Amino acid sequence: MSTSVAMHMSDGLLNATTSMLFIGVAVLGLAVAAARARATLDDRTAPMAGLVAAFLFATQMINFPVLPGVSGHLLGGALAAILVGPWVGALCVSIVLVVQALVFADGGITALGANITNMALIGTAAGFLVALALRRLAQHGRAGLVAVAFIAAVFNTVLASVGFVVEFAMGGETSFPLGTVAATVIGVHCLIGIGEGVITALTVGAVAAVRPDLVYLLRGTERPLELRTAAGVAA
């Protein structure tokens, strides 16, 4: 029997005080993201955000194996941040998490704040900051952008798992030793991060191949990627 390990905390894993604390953190973080997202939404970002949310929802429902009996799935923070920006990206990931929790019971209702904090806030921020730091590499061509997407996605996954460990240390309800939990969760998510990196790199690379102007990370760069067609350079 395969066990899915990909960040979605269930009800009862954190005590009530910690759960309520991170519901507050999630609400505050999403309020800031919503306010900042208004400045980045335009006729390109708005439809792209819908497509990103739909893609994340679909891919998060698909598990890939990482160890015998253990599987993971895409978190999507770096992918969303690179394509639509960190603020809109955080909202996209959050919408997916809310629908999964309410409709598919994937992640607990009381743990929704912690799940949003880890995957939508920490994951998206970490992925975007890493991608932003490596943006010069991304400007060198699609191969550079794909490499940056892979690295950002790995960091997105591992740092999101660190968020889980911090929350568990603050209010974990089980009797498992914290060191064991930390080593297991972070170790497994290092492997999940490789799968996350591959999916993110392929997706960002596919978008950049046909519409490089839709890649948020490359906006405002001095040397945007060019769209090459059979007739030559188109954009």
TrEMBL record:
<keyword id="KW-1133">Transmembrane helix</keyword>
<keyword id="KW-0813">Transport</keyword>
<feature type="transmembrane region" description="Helical">
    <location>
        <begin position="79"/>
        <end position="103"/>
    </location>
</feature>
<dbReference type="GO" id="GO:0000041">
    <property type="term" value="P:transition metal ion transport"/>
</dbReference>
<dbReference type="Pfam" id="PF01891">
    <property type="entry name" value="CbiM"/>
</dbReference>
<feature type="transmembrane region" description="Helical">
    <location>
        <begin position="47"/>
        <end position="67"/>
    </location>
</feature>
<feature type="transmembrane region" description="Helical">
    <location>
        <begin position="145"/>
        <end position="166"/>
    </location>
</feature>
<protein>
    <submittedName>
        <fullName>Cobalt/nickel transport system permease protein</fullName>
    </submittedName>
</protein>
<dbReference type="GO" id="GO:0005886">
    <property type="term" value="C:plasma membrane"/>
</dbReference>
<keyword id="KW-0472">Membrane</keyword>
<dbReference type="InterPro" id="IPR002751">
    <property type="entry name" value="CbiM/NikMN"/>
</dbReference>
<keyword id="KW-0812">Transmembrane</keyword>
<keyword id="KW-1003">Cell membrane</keyword>
<feature type="transmembrane region" description="Helical">
    <location>
        <begin position="186"/>
        <end position="210"/>
    </location>
</feature>
<feature type="transmembrane region" description="Helical">
    <location>
        <begin position="109"/>
        <end position="133"/>
    </location>
</feature>
